[in-house]
Amino acid sequence: MMKGDEFVLRLSRSDLDSQPGAAVPHDLPGAVAAAVKDRTGRVVNLSVASDPAAIDAGIVIESQPGAAVPHGLERCDSSFAARLKRMQDDLRFVVADMLFGESKEPGAPGAAREGGKP
């Protein structure tokens, strides 16, 4: 969990441009802040960076520069590429199971069970 209560949401160029003339797509800071409060009880202040993140899709969340964060600036990369990379090992077995019918990794989703049937 990120520390502090002030964060900057960094979007891709296409997401920033998705609402011509609008500074922030669909009141994203308000929606995210409400979701954080509902799920954790924390009240956070969010803003959207005007410059795009170097990502194709997703979002990068950073602690607000100058905010009192105990361990310096924090960053959570939830871009599509970063999430895919974190899931790469698990997805490898899922794809193998889809292609070849069984996975060699015990306990992997769709791994063959006793008798050779998933």
Helix content range of the residues, please?
25-40%
- Percent strand equals 15-25%
Distance between the termini: 36 Å
Q: Unreliable runs, pLDDT <50, ≥5 residues? A: 112-118
- Average pLDDT reading: 78
Instruction: Record the strand order, biggest sheet.
Output: 2-1-3-4
From the 3D coordinates, which CATH architecture would you assign?
2-Layer Sandwich
Annotation field: number of helices: 3
For the record, the CATH class is Alpha Beta
Could you explain the architecture of this structure?
The chain has a single domain, classed as hypothetical protein PF0899 fold (2-Layer Sandwich), CATH 3.30.2320. The chain is elongated. The protein is built from 3 helices and 4 strands. By secondary structure, it is an alpha+beta fold. A 4-stranded mixed beta sheet has the order 2-1-3-4.
Write the layout of secondary structure elements.
Elements: E1 6-11, H1 13-16, H2 28-40, E2 45-48, E3 58-63, E4 75-79, H3 80-100
Parallel strand pairs: 1-2
Antiparallel strand pairs: 1-3, 3-4
